[in-house]
Amino acid sequence: MITTPLFYLLSVALLAALLGTLEKVTKHKVFTFLPSVVLIYAAAMVFAQFGLWQESTSIHDSYKSVKTVLLPAMLFVMLLQIDLKAFAGLGRSLIIAYVSSVLSLSFAFIALFWLFSLNSDAAGVFATLAGSWTGGTANMLAVAGALDVREELMGYALIVDSIDYTLWVMTLLFLVAFAPAFNRWTKAPLRFKTIDEEQQEKQKIQPLPLVLLFIFSLAIAYLSNTLASLLSGLSQTTWSVLFATLFGLIGSRTPLKSIVGSPTLSSAMLMFLIALIGSQAHLRGFGEVPLYLGVGLLILLFHALIMVIVAKLFRLDLFSIGVASLANIGGVASAPILAAAYHRSLIGIAVLMAIMGYMIGTFAGLAIGYILQGLAA
User: Fold this and answer.
1) How many CB atoms lie within 10 A of CB 139?
2) What's the pLDDT band for 200 if we cut at 50, 70, 90?
3) Phi/psi at 341 (nearest 5 deg)?
4) What is the architecture of the domain spanning 5-198+208-376?
5) How far is CA 224 from CA 12, 244, 367, in A?
6) Of 58, 83, 146, 251, which has the maximum CB count within 10 A?
7) What is the pLDDT of residues 64-118, one digit of tens each?
């Protein structure tokens, strides 16, 4: 059993590094459906159940301290990749598809939650899930932290996310073959500008700029937390997340955006945070999981129905609504795969949509979360 904060943090970091590296090195297809962040959380949670880390005040305090700083720092670095101008240039059909995807998912979460008269614990689960399905795992963490969702409830959200998401990816890939028939039914003109696939970073990552960016992100986190402590009305974590998001959007308009390796840095911070949260999750039972999984599937079906109606009304093609949906629900990890199934030249569109979710997901998840909490009261 690990009893000291230092070895606790080192062991959590090692777990995240090992599983994250495994995904990069093997590039196995299993990671398409079970991303490394899910496996990292699951492994950390299992170790926590078996008592690898002592449940002590010192370890819990170290967990809270690191999480408080690392969450806004990660959000800042991640949002440096946002490109609002490029998104606006996607064209009418793709923007309609993306906005419809966000709104339909939001409405589906609220409608299904109300229909099943779920409780406050379920509100935490689905608010966290909403952050992921309108943005990504980082947004999931931001929403969970801002709404003070317990670690075990986040565990349920990750279970629903991984299983229902896997089914959704397979469904959308299966439907690619039916695109011509669908497009004839919607009378889609199939006229939109393609975007070349983002070039891989050909420049070698320079350690010094990346280290300086990490230090700067910690300073941003300190500033965000300090400003948050001066405000009321929302929780301090919520204010801190919002300030970090604002600073990230500002940073995306500066030379910080061009630092080679910043996506790698934000991914490493995300994996460490996921492992940290998993190490503090103690699931007391899985009795609620079937209900959460079922409601999650119904949310996806409701979302799909709305997207089909929107496609018919606005003459959208299957690629547009499919990639817009998966850019929200699956993010950068899976949306490009679906785009490539249509044509390789469309991968850049999927990447751009998914990155936009980094900005949208936190706000959408928080809005949905507050509504669900109100319905559960």
Assistant:
1) 30
2) very low
3) -65, -25
4) Up-down Bundle (1.20)
5) 25, 6, 20
6) 146
7) 999 999 989 998 998 888 887 888 778 888 899 999 999 999 999 999 999 999 9
Radius of gyration of the chain (CA): 20
Token output for 256? 């910080």
Per-position DSSP letters for 188-247, written without gaps between them = --------PPPPP--SPPPHHHHHHHHHHHHHHHHHHHHHHHT--SS-HHHHHHHHHHHH
Distance (Å, rounded) from C-alpha 101 to C-alpha 321?
7
User: Domain locations in the chain?
Assistant: 5-198+208-376
- Cα–Cα dist 125/139, whole Å: 14
For residue 146, give both structure tokens: 């801002």
Residue 191 has pLDDT above 60, yes or no: no
Look at residues 178, 187, 181, 189 and name the one whose alpha carbon lies nearest to residue 91. 189
Q: State how far the Cα of 200 lies from the Cα of 198, in Å rounded to an integer.
A: 6
Q: How many residues make up the chain in this entry? A: 377
Smallest Cα–Cα separation from 238: which of 249, 225, 248, 247? 225
CA distances from 178 to 4, 164, 363 (A): 57, 22, 34
pTM for this model (two decimals) = 0.80
Q: What is the mean pLDDT of residues 311-330?
A: 93
Round to whole Å and give the CA distance between 322 and 308: 10
- Looking at the DSSP bridge assignments, the partners of residue 53 are 2
* For range 272-297, the mean pLDDT: 82
pLDDT in tens, 25-35: 887 777 766 67
Angle between helices 151-175 and 36-49 in degrees, nearest 10: 150
* Amino acid identity, position 316: L
Flag whether pLDDT at 199 surpasses 70.
no
